[in-house]
Amino acid sequence: MKKQDVSRRIKNFEEVALGLDETEAVLEAKRCLECQRPWCVRGCPVGVDIPRFIRAIRDGRFEDGIRIIWEKNSLPAVCGRVCPHEVQCEGVCSLARGCSKFMTAKGRARVEAFLEQFNLTQKRRRPVSIGALERFLADYAAEHGITPYTAGSDMKGKGKVALVGSGPASLAAAGELARRGYHATIFEALHAPGGVLRYGIPNFRLPEEIIDREIRQLKDMGVEFRQDVLIGRTLTIDELLSDFDAVFIGSGAGAPVLMGIEGENLNGVYSANEFLTRVNLMEAYRFPETDTPINIGKRVVTIGGGNVAMDSARVALRLGAEESIILYRRRREEMPARREEIENAEEEGVEFKFLTTPTKYIGDDEGCVRAVECIRMEPGEVDDSGRQRPVPVAGSEFTIEADTVIVAIGQRPNPLIPTTTQGLETGKIRNIIADESGRTSIKGVFAGGDATTGAATVILAMGAGVRAARAIAEYIEGCKD
User: Fold this and answer.
1) Per-domain boundaries in the chain
2) Among 36-40, 302-306, 360-364, which is the least confidently predicted range?
3) Which site from 121, 193, 348, 416 is most exposed, i.e. has the minimal number of CB atoms within 10 Å?
């Protein structure tokens, strides 16, 4: 996929990846083998009929294609941009797995002809770019005024459902409920809906207008949004249960995790949650046009190896940092960030120091961070994650000068709702305990996404939201019997 030139994009917050045009999308769709056993569908947490929408693209039936996606996914433009396709649908694509076992004769002939025609025989194992095709259809629909199902005579008023939080879990659940004829009301604590999609992901990876567009489509389907309502304070779960037939908690994981080392309270040490919220939601990059300032020095050090760390380090460069360094305690191949985001960060000049972890932050007399004391690590025994646990190398301490430090080592669910809801069972990290269908310990209360699992991916949260919506529908119907 084409990308914005590095020399230009490093100075703006505009989207980096530029998407496919119609010709590119059709050519890519023609690479699909049309497997008899489509593993890609099994790899999609919301179960989109991927072969069918790819076939529609191949045939030039773009409106049909997006409508096939909308049957299962209310946020295709978002998913086409930020889902980790390489480990989900694309990760199990028969082309990537070695296609011979599942390839039909017709499919084999088509792919062989295509590869030969475009001299791509050496790339036969590259999976179909399912995410790029999904994004193409979503953007095509927006450009041509194609919209999903809208509220109308089919809305049967089957029941009312309150959804807490407006991140991907609740958005997906609301879309599924609306399609089934239920009235869904989403309560959001912040002034703008979108949850982690809006406050956690920079515009250069997920533009704000894309979030607005897909939320607008949900509104057109009849989903109601109420902002500036903090559930657990403004209203309780019990109060919601008195007004709605069921409640879904999709409040995400917005509480930052810190390391508990010396110097974390110094000025200039941010959690990634605060740093990205200031930039994305509060538009600190436009200060003083906006009211939220952010201080960024010449050298920024980010701790972590996930997508949030990549986002933070790349934002720092766009805010004017001369050097942006990522410290990660494991090796490069063990980084949880998406491969393309690591490559984008490298292209933009982010420096990586692997097998390195901070031991304390060093400040000046005015209480501002000025350096990070680090220690080198080496792979140790294999731990529960299946990876070698990094262990410190004695005597390897060293110091890196830093004006700003961003800690991006994870997030946990906010404890507000569990502490204000009697009888709601929680786990070790205050995550809400829910079964596979989202049922919690309280009748009529369901939960899903990061609020139950801790920080994960957008599409996994959406999958949990869809499963919970189906269970909610069954629950409400059961209550009427």
Assistant:
1) 2-144, 160-254+413-479, 258-411
2) 36-40
3) 121
- Count the residues in the chain: 481
pLDDT of residue 442: 97
- pLDDT tens-digit map of 48-60: 999 999 999 999 9
Reading the block at residue 92, the tokens are 């199990």
Instruction: From 169, 188, 182, 194, select the one nearest 223 (Cα to Cα).
Output: 182
- In the numeric block, which tokens belong to residue 284? 């600190």
Q: Is domain 2-144 given the CATH code 1.10.1060.10 in the classification?
A: yes
The second-level CATH assignment, the architecture, of 258-411 is 3-Layer(bba) Sandwich (3.50)
Task: Give burial (CB, 10 Å; 0-12/13-18/19+) of 266.
Answer: middle
Segments of 336-410 assigned E as strands: 351-353, 356-363, 369-382, 388-392, 398-401, 404-407
**Which two tokens mark 292?**
């939220």
Task: Kindly state the helix (H) or strand (E) to which residue 63 belongs, with its residue range.
Answer: helix 62-70
Inform me whether the pLDDT recorded for 389 exceeds 80.
Answer: yes
Q: What is the pLDDT of residues 121-161, one digit of tens each?
A: 655 568 999 999 999 999 999 999 998 866 554 555 789 99
Fold match, 160-254+413-479 / 258-411:
yes
93: three-class secondary structure by DSSP? coil
Q: CATH number for the 160-254+413-479 domain, one of 3.30.2020.30, 3.50.50.60, 2.60.120.260, 2.30.40.10?
A: 3.50.50.60
The two three-digit tokens of residue 363, written as one number? 């400040």
Residue that the structure tokens 């792979």 belong to: 379
> What is the number of alpha carbons within 13 Å of residue 202 lying toward its C-beta?
30
Give the global pTM.
Answer: 0.88
Structure tokens at 273: 């949650």
Give the Cα separation of 298 and 401 in Å (integer).
10
323 contacts 346 by C-beta, under 8 angstroms:
no
Question: Nearest 10 degrees: CA dihedral of 259, 345, 282, 448?
Answer: -60
Q: What is the pLDDT of residue 386?
A: 76
Report whether 231 contacts 187 (CB < 8 A): yes
pLDDT confidence of 117, banded at 50, 70, 90? confident
At a CB cut-off of 8 Å and minimum separation 6, what does 327 contact? 301, 302, 303, 304, 353, 356, 357, 358, 372, 374, 400
